[in-house]
Amino acid sequence: MNELYVGSEVGRLREVIVHRPGTELLRLTPETKEELLFDDLMWVRRAQEEHDQFSEALESTGTEVLHLDVLLRETLAVTEARNFILDLTFDERLHGPAAAPVLRQVASQLDGAALAELVIGGLTKRELLELTDEPRSIVLHSMGPDDLVVAPLPNHLFARDASCWVYDGVAVNSMQKPARMREAVTYEAVYRWHPRFASAPFQRWADGLSDAQATVEGGDVLVLGNGAVLIGMSERTTPQGVERIARRLFAAGSADRVVALDLPKARSFMHLDTVMTMVDERSFIEYAGLGELPSYTITPRSGTGGTPVEVELNIADHAPGHAHRAIADALGLHGLRILTAEQDLHSAAREQWDDGCNALAVSPGVVITYDRTPTSNAFLRESGIEVIEVPGGELGRGRGGPRCMSCPTLRDPL
């Protein structure tokens, strides 16, 4: 096994990246929350307390927890990384040719901690004017004092999406929504220049800076194990993105099967892991309202190989209702155990909205879930799954559960 390797969804979790909520969530207002992809405002202090308990739960299982803001701060000690971040944060197409160089110069004088805070937490005009005189810029002059000069990245809370590790490589993902596109810059800098990653050998499955409309988000990607990957085609992950990542996996010999599920394109089905996650070697917790989905199995065509562009794809489509069979076949199993609690339609929809299906396995049959989904948690326990509950009263307002908030970098294979 390589030093950085995620061999499954449920093998022993060894190392994970998370992001503790901070200033960026204080930028949410009733006016900005929808643009920043939130349905509600969080009580940030309580959300931080809940996230601390989430991190403690991970550590209690022997998992090493890496914090994204700390990784970024340490990365910014490298000159090339600092210049990369500055170049991609301050752009004249966004800030105008009059303001962009001034903003870059001001930011370049900040220490690593302050610059990391700016990149993730954003910057208002009022805060800028505490650092420098206002430059002659139409863009800045037309802003109110509390308008955001640099947009925050509150969705970094959901560490899974912009970066996901699949076997011996990582996908730094092209994000579908404008509010999340800059998240790829953070992860790209960390993986290129942070000492923990810069010298480690690993493959690259996606390029968030150039893949454009071929979007893939980590909440849609499940590493089934044994060379198989399951990807949901949601409102955030496109078929083009699925085919591109499959071809790169096949070219490297890191995977030999990708099963793609065609999800409803709705916010309530935002990512695959909001409706379906793996909890042991053959078991999935699944939302009762998921229905019978079309699915596809992608394999490399015999005799192709070499660079990704040379790999040809075999694509087999399955009738609706055959998705479970396709997943079982990819895993080499006779069948799956699908865990769906019996409850009325409205209760099931509420628990799914509250991330009842978004379980994070820390080892086979041991999962972390929110305490706000009691029916799902009780059913998992009745099914022989050990459940570690963490508070989700505030974190759950963000529409992402424990799996969403974690980016495994080292996990055992099946």
From TrEMBL:
GO terms for molecular function: arginine deiminase activity. It comes from the Bacteria. It is an enzyme of class 3 (hydrolase). Pfam families: ADI (PF02274). Pathway: Amino-acid degradation; L-arginine degradation via ADI pathway; carbamoyl phosphate from L-arginine: step 1/2. GO terms for cellular component: cytoplasm. Keywords: Arginine metabolism, Cytoplasm, Hydrolase. It is found in: Cytoplasm. Its main location: cytoplasm. GO terms for biological process: L-arginine deiminase pathway. It catalyses: L-arginine + H2O = L-citrulline + NH4(+). The active site is at C404 (amidino-cysteine intermediate). Its EC number is 3.5.3.6. NCBIfam families: PRK01388.1 (NF002381). Belongs to the arginine deiminase family. This is Arginine deiminase. The gene is arcA.
